[in-house]
Design brief:
This protein is an alpha/beta fold. The protein has 2 domains: about 230 residues, FAD/NAD(P)-binding domain; about 120 residues, D-Amino Acid Oxidase, subunit A, domain 2 (D-Amino Acid Oxidase, Chain A, domain 2, 2-Layer Sandwich), CATH 3.30.9.10. The chain has 14 helices and 21 strands. Helix 10 runs antiparallel to helix 12 and helix 13 crosses helix 14. The protein starts with a strand and ends in a 5-residue tail after the last helix. The model has no long low-confidence stretch (mean pLDDT about 95). Bound molecules: arabino-flavin-adenine dinucleotide and P-hydroxybenzoic acid (PHB). The site of P-hydroxybenzoic acid has 10 residues, from strand 16.
Amino acid sequence: MQPIQVDTQIAIVGAGPSGLLLSQLLNKAGIKTAIIERSSKEHVLSRIRAGVLERGTVQLLEQAGVSDRMHREGHVHEGCLLSQNDLQIRINFKELTGASVMVYGQTEVTKDLYDAQDEMGTPRFHEVSEVQILDLDQPQSRVCFEHEGQSKEIRCDFVVGCDGFHGVSRQTIPKSVRKEFEKVYPFGWLGILSETPPCDEELIYAHSERGFALASMRNPMLSRYYIQVPLTDTVEDWSDDAFWAELKKRLPSAVADRMVTGPSIEKSIAPLRSFVSEPMRYQSLFLCGDASHIVPPTGAKGLNLAASDVHYLVEGLIDYYHNQSEEKLDGYSDRALARVWQAMRFSWSMTTLLHQFPEDDAFTQRMQPTALHHLAKSETARQELAENYIGLPF
Ligand code: FAS
Ligand code: PHB
C-alpha cells in the first residue's frame, strides 16, 4: 500500500528544543516545516535538563516570539560563584562583560515552543518509529516512518536532524564521510530537583576533594542540585538523606549551614562526554544540536549550542528561499562548528578544573586549587571565564 504523503519544504526529525525552535523560526519566515518525534509530547516535556540560557539564546527566543513567559518567570543572573572548600570566587558577568544569563529551565523553553507551534498549526507527528531518511542526493528528499499504524512519508527540499545523540540522522551520514571526536569522562552527575528555596541567589560550581557539586535552581521554590558520582553508581544507591549529606560536604560550610533540604521530586544520573561529529551537512541533510555534538553540562552549553546551530541554519534557509542564494547553506557546517569547538573547549576546561579525576597524579590534582586561587586573584582570568560562560557571539 502507498504511504500517506506529506509535502513540505523542511522535514525536521526530533521535537526537542532544536527541532521546535528551528520550526518556529522558519514558520515565522514563511517557510513550511513538518516535525516527527519518536516520543510522546508528555515524555519530551517530562525531561529535566538545562537551566541556563545565554544572551544569544534569549534573543533567539524573542525572535521566535516565545519569550514572554521566560521574561516573566525566568531570572536574570549577573554572576555565578565558583568555590573551593570555603573559598568563594564570584564571577561578575555584568562587570566583566556587560552581559548576563537567564535562568529558565529547558523544560519551560520546550513547553513555550510547543504552545507556539500548536498555534502555528505546524504538522507534527509524535510516537513515530522506523524512521528512514532517503534520497538526500535527489531534488526531493524523503523521510519515511510509521505512525499510528500507518506508513507515512514526508517529501521535502531539506531534512534537518534535530534528533539528539541517539537519533537516526547522524547515522544516515556514511561513516566514510563522518569524522568523530569523543572524550568520555570517568564520572557522571547525579541530579535532583527539590521544592526547596535555593541555597544562594546565584549558581555555585563547587570543587572539593570529595568531588564536584553544582547548586542551581529553577525558581524561588524549586532547586536543582548535582554531585559528581562514579559511573558505577545508580540512583538507587543514593537516598535523599545521603545526597543532601554529600552535597553539604562539597559546598562552602556557610552555604551548607543555610541549606534547606527536602524530598527529591526528580532524581537521575547523566553521563558526561565531549563529542563532535563533523560535518554538520551531508547533501540535503543538516544536523542541529545534540545530533551533532555533546558537551559536559559543566559549562551550561548544550542547549545554547543547539540555539546557535539553529540560528545559523535559519539564516541559510531564509537566504535560500527568499534570495535564491545557497552561500550561507554551503557555509553552515563550518560556521556552526567554529562556535561548537569554542564551547567544547570551555566545557572541557570547566569540567577539568572542577571535577576529581580518579587517575590524576598528585601534581595534576594540585593544579585545580592552584588555578582556582589564580581565578580569585586575577580579573583577567575571571573575564576569560565570564565571556565564555555568557556565550561567545553568534
Ligand atoms: P534533544 O536530545 O533534547 O532532543 C532530540 C529529540 O529527538 C528527542 O525528543 C528525541 O526523542 C527525538 N528523537 C531521537 N531519535 C529520534 C528518531 N529516530 N526519530 C524521531 N525523533 C527522535 N545542557 C545544558 O546546557 N545543561 C544541562 O544541565 C544539561 N543536562 C542534560 C542532562 C541530560 C540527561 C541530557 C541527555 C542532556 C543535558 N543537557 C544539558 C544537554 C541538553 O540540554 C541538550 O543540549 C538539548 O536537549 C539539545 O537539544 P536537542 O538538540 O533538541 O536534542
Ligand atoms: C541546571 O540548572 O540544570 C544547570 C545549570 C548550569 C549548568 C548545568 C546545569 O552548568
